[in-house]
Design a protein that fits this description.
The chain is of the alpha+beta class and 347 residues long. It has 10 helices and 9 strands. It starts with 9 loop residues before the first strand and ends in an 8-residue tail after the last strand.
C-alpha cells in the first residue's frame, strides 16, 4: 500500500535465530538489524493492489440499541491518545517507519473523533451482546454521516495510490458505500475476502469500521476461554499479532484481533496458523534495533506472527509498534515466510 521504505532500512545478510517461544536467555541468538556496512536494502514486497470496489452483498441488518456504559467513551479516548503519542515517539526514533506512522496518526486522530458518536448514539444494552452476535449489528445510521469526512482525511494525507482510491470511493453513490461497509463488517478479517477485495478497498472499510468494532467488543461479555482458539472469540477475525505480557518470571502470550483489537490468551509454543507445537519448528527472530518485537515463525506452514514483548518494553502499544516493524516484515518475506493477516497499513 505504501511505497518502498527508505534505502536506509538495511538487514545484514547473515542471521542467527532462536528456536524459542520460551523466555529468551542471555545467550539466545538474534537477528542483527541496523544500518550497517555489508547490509542489504530491501524493497517492500507488500505491493499496492489494484483497487477493487465491492459489489453489493447481502445486507447485515442494522439494529440500534443503547450503549449504557459511558466510561467506555472516556477509556476509548485515552486509548487513542496513547496510540497517537506512541506513534509520534516511534516516528521520531525510527525514520524508516516515519511515513507509515505519520499517516497512521491522521487515521487514529479521525478514529478518536468517531468514538464519542458511536458511544452516545446507541448500539448495545448494558447487559451486553453474546460473542456470536458481535457482527450481527452494524448501525450505519451512526457511522455513514462520517464516511465522507473519513475519505477526505485519506485524500489529504495518504500515499498517492490510496488517495486515488479514496477519491474514487467518494464519487460513488451512498448505496455503494453501504454495500462496501456492510460486506466488510460481515466478512472482513476472516480470510479470503480481504484478499479478494484488494489492499485499498480493505483499508477504507477496515480503518473506518475499526472504532465501532473495538467499542462493541469492549462492551461484550468475554466467553469462556480456550487458549488454542486461533481466531478472535468475539468477532471471528484472524489474529493480527501476538503480545507477551508480564507474568511471573517470563510472559504470558496473547493474540491481538485484527479487527476488534481484543486480546485472548494463547499457548506459548504453538503455531496460531497450523497448530504446529514442536519447538524446533517454531523459530523466533529478534532484531537488535527493535529488541521488544519478535518474528515468531513456523517452518511447517511458513507463516509468521509479529509479537510485541511487553516484558522488554512496557511502554509499547502493540497495535502501533507493529507499524514500526517494517524491517522485520521485509526480512520475513525475503526468507519465505508470509503474514497471515497484514496490519492496517498493509505490512
Amino acid at each position: 500500500m505504501f511505497p518502498s521504505p527508505s534505502p536506509s532500512v538495511t538487514i545484514p545478510a547473515g542471521i542467527r535465530k532462536s528456536s524459542a517461544n520460551r523466555p529468551r536467555r542471555a545467550n539466545d541468538k538474534r537477528l542483527s538489524h541496523g544500518c550497517t556496512s555489508g547490509g542489504r536494502s530491501f524493497s517492500s514486497d507488500v505491493k499496492a493492489a489494484v483497487i477493487g470496489l465491492l459489489a453489493p452483498e447481502d445486507s447485515v441488518s442494522a439494529l440500534r440499541r443503547i450503549y449504557e456504559m459511558a466510561s467506555t467513551t472516556q477509556t476509548a479516548g485515552t486509548e487513542h491518545d496513547a496510540r497517537l503519542r506512541r506513534a509520534a515517539r516511534l516516528s521520531s526514533e525510527y525514520s524508516f517507519a516515519s511515513e507509515f506512522l505519520n499517516f497512521y496518526k491522521h487515521v487514529a486522530a479521525f478514529q478518536k473523533t468517531l468514538r464519542p458518536s458511536i458511544a452516545s448514539s446507541g448500539g448495545m444494552k448494558a447487559s451486553g451482546t453474546p460473542a456470536a452476535e458481535i457482527r450481527d449489528s452494524l448501525d450505519l445510521t451512526v457511522l455513514l454521516p462520517h464516511f465522507r469526512g473519513f475519505l477526505s482525511v485519506i485524500e489529504q494525507h495518504a500515499p498517492a495510490a490510496l488517495r486515488e482510491s479514496a477519491r474514487q470511493m467518494s464519487l460513488l453513490p451512498t448505496d455503494s458505500w453501504i454495500a462496501s461497509l456492510e460486506a466488510y463488517w460481515e466478512y472482513g478479517g476472516k480470510g479470503k475476502y480481504d484478499q479478494q477485495i484488494g489492499a485499498f478497498a480493505q483499508f477504507l472499510a477496515r480503518a473506518f469500521l475499526q472504532p465501532y468494532a473495538e467499542f462493541r467488543a469492549a462492551m461484550t461479555p468475554k466467553p469462556p476461554m480456550v487458549i488454542t482458539v486461533r481466531v478472535c472469540p468475539l468477532c471471528g477475525a484472524r489474529p493480527l499479532m501476538g503480545v507477551l505480557r508480564v507474568e511471573g518470571d517470563s510472559g504470558k502470550r496473547f493474540l491481538l484481533c485484527s479487527f476488534c483489537s481484543q486480546e485472548w490468551e494463547f499457548r506459548r509454543i504453538f503455531c496460531s496458523t497450523c497448530g504446529e507445537e514442536e519447538e524446533g519448528k517454531l523459530p523466533v527472530y529478534v532484531a537488535e534495533q527493535l529488541p521488544h518485537i519478535r518474528v515468531e515463525a513456523c517452518d511447517t506452514c511458513k507463516f509468521f506472527l509479529t509479537t510485541v514483548d511487553l516484558t522488554k518494553d512496557g511502554h509499547a502499544i502493540p497495535l502501533v509498534d507493529d507499524l514500526a516493524a517494517i524491517p522485520l516484515t521485509l526480512w520475513a518475506h525475503e526468507h519465505g515466510y508470509s503474514r497471515l493477516q497484514p496490519n492496517l497499513l498493509g505490512t
